[in-house]
């Protein structure tokens, strides 16, 4: 459920591109006519936020095309140049602005690529099953049409199989029933299975995963369960983790807010408020600053 507040009437893509050009070429309130690549020129981050954070993905794509046509350079290249000349106060803003301006599929591909480039932790015992699970999650076909029928006999059987595998600490493998069920069943089928699990065994499957599945495999399994059936729980937890304590994990916070603003941010905010007795807005205000804070708040939306 998108919370992006698009103005009415919405400016044309060419008008927005021109406004962005002006916002990229200001210094101390004065617009300059030199090329944006001049190292001394700052940018009006508030104007950039007001324009792009109030446009849909399709509208942002149109703005990018218009900008490239009018000024013979990609808009993202301008943002990346600013990022490469960043000061510490602007780093997170420019990284967030680049991700937001990307096409959603382009953004997801970049995030996956960056995640896979990072060094793996030392939990090598589970690495083969983690790779297997990731591959199956991204390659399995899940029918999600309106006519998706839940097979209650399979629900009963697989709820029992999941309980046995999780509570008896069965060692995971590429052919493990847990991996097979979670990576192949439709979301409707999984929701019914997890509900039957709760009814038959008196606990939520995510709680049992926390209790009985150790290490990185357990964390990935819980994430998969939540993302497939109730993603707001996972993303509320990630936001909380990113801002809890003395520091802020800005990349993690940016990734969640940028990627979910047009999908289910309203549900995430509600889940966050119920679970943590505060709001996403209040915690973002308390842990971020300057243009980066304004950017995030624009995507989180107003909270009562």
From TrEMBL:
Gene Ontology biological-process entries: response to cold; response to heat; response to salt stress; response to water deprivation
GO MF term (any one): calcium ion binding
Pfam family, one: Annexin
Transferase is among the record's keywords: no
TM ranges: none
The keyword Secreted is assigned to this record: no
Family the entry assigns: Belongs to the annexin family.
Domains (record comment): A pair of annexin repeats may form one binding site for calcium and phospholipid.
UniProt cross-references to PANTHER family, sorted A to Z: ANNEXIN
Name listed for the protein in its UniProt record: Annexin
Organism: Oryza rufipogon
Taxonomic path: Eukaryota, Viridiplantae, Streptophyta, Embryophyta, Tracheophyta
């Amino acid at each position: 459920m998108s919370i992006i507040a698009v103005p009415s009437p919405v400016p044309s893509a060419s008008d927005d591109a021109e406004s962005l050009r002006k916002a990229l070429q200001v210094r101390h309130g004065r617009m300059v006519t030199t090329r944006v690549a001049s190292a001394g020129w700052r940018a009006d981050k508030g104007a950039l936020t007001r324009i792009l954070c109030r446009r849909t993905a399709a509208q942002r794509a149109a703005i990018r095309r218009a900008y490239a046509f009018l000024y013979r350079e990609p808009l993202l290249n301008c943002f990346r140049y600013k990022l490469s000349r960043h000061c510490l106060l602007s780093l997170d803003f420019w990284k967030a602005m680049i991700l937001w301006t990307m096409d959603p599929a382009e953004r997801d591909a970049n995030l996956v690529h960056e995640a896979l480039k990072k060094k793996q932790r030392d939990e090598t015992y589970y690495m083969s099953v983690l790779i297997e699970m990731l591959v199956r999650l991204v390659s399995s076909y899940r029918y999600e049409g309106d006519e998706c029928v839940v097979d209650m006999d399979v629900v009963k059987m697989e709820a029992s199989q999941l309980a046995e595998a999780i509570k008896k600490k069965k060692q995971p493998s590429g052919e493990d029933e847990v991996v097979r069920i979670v990576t192949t069943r439709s979301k409707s089928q999984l929701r019914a299975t997890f509900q039957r699990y709760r009814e038959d065994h008196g606990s939520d499957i995510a709680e049992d995963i926390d209790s009985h599945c150790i290490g990185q495999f357990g964390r990935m399994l819980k994430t998969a369960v939540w993302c497939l059936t109730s993603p707001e729980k996972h993303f509320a937890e990630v936001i909380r983790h990113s801002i809890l304590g003395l520091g802020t994990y800005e990349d993690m916070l940016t990734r969640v807010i940028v990627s979910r603003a047009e999908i289910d941010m309203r549900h995430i905010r509600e889940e966050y408020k119920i679970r943590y007795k505060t709001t996403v807005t209040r915690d973002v205000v308390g842990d971020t600053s300057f243009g980066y804070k304004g950017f995030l708040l624009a995507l989180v939306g107003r909270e009562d």
